[in-house]
Amino acid sequence: MLPIKTALCSFGMSGRLFHAPFLNLDPGFELYAVLERNKDLAVVAYPGIRTRRSLDELLNDKAVELVIVNTPNYTHFDYAKKALMAGKHVVVEKPFTVTASEAEELTALARRSGKKLSVYQNRRYDSDFKTLKKLLEDDWLGDIVEAEIHYDRFNPALSPKLHKETPGPGTGVVYDLGSHLIDQALQLFGMPEGVFADLRITRPGSQVEDYMEILFYYPALRVRIKSGYFVREALPSYILHGMRGSFVKARTDIQERELLAGKTPGGEDWGKEPDNERGLLHTEREGKIIRETIPSLRGNYGEYYEKLYACIRDPTGEKPAPVTPEDGIKIMRIIEAAYQSSREKRSIYFR
């Protein structure tokens, strides 16, 4: 196994929690370098890492094979483009870019350069979502007619990260949490025929949208994704109703909480939900009514990097990335349509 020398473009929350621990744990990767313009935080946590003071310095290092673009949203396109042009494989944090045209340009550039490009959608590897996806694959509910996916919280305070609260390209709840929920809806049900969106500002002093409700239109199905900051008593995060039954589940993946607490990924209990957080399945199979809570699959963000290693080191070059750039383009198309729908107060349909 030849480790992939990997560089992070920042060591903020995403680099510190969602990338570095899993890259450091996986023998397929070497946490080789980090971009920190003024600080030296990464080298304290990972003494062998190399600190670079500029993007050019990082990209000029011929040893770097993979670059993780985990910087503010508005920089994603520029940083990823420069990394691809420097001959690096690239992972871009969600949201992929700010516009669909930027996503398409990066995808075409990666194809021409022969480099792998992927979007980091770690919520595909949450325990709750993995469980829900397996239920649908095993056809426990029959044809789905209605679904809701929520990512709610009670947090009226503005973020201390100014780039998240300053109006501009790539800001707002649709780019932030919406990127996760849109990706999950697409993973479960595919691209919709159209969308209708209601986007609002609810927090005092906020200048960016912090409430969203987006309705996805399918021929025989409606899917609603929703997020708000004033939800003290949250509804279940996943509500699915099919022709044979229903499934209701709270968002209870424990990985982010454990990472924030300083725990190291790995071990049999990593990503394992408590038994009291099981989802409720109420359905019918072979003439028997079933109403019971079911155990969740284990969550593991490390699966993303396991699949990425297999993709990059695949000798045929045909193994797809764990999240393809085409997936990212679809998300950006829906985000753009959601903003257009909210502005024009009408449904937007895709051709």
Question: Can you give me a brief rundown of this structure?
Answer:
By secondary structure, the protein is of the alpha/beta class.
Q: Mind explaining what this structure looks like?
A:
By secondary structure, this protein is α/β, with parallel strands linked by helices. Helix content is 32%, strand content 23%. Helix 4 packs parallel to helix 5. The strands form two sheets. The chain has a nine-stranded mixed sheet. The protein has a six-stranded parallel sheet with strand order 3-2-1-4-5-6, sandwiched between helices. The mean pLDDT is 96. The chain has eleven helices and 15 strands.
Helix content: 25-40%
Shape: globular
Order of the strands making up the biggest sheet: 14-13-12-11-7-10-9-8-15
Q: End-to-end distance, in Å?
A: 45 Å
Order of helices and strands, N to C?
A: EHEHEHEHEHEHEHHEEEEEHEEHHE
Please tally the helical runs, counting DSSP H or I stretches of 4 or more residues. 11
Category from helices, strands and their pairing: alpha/beta
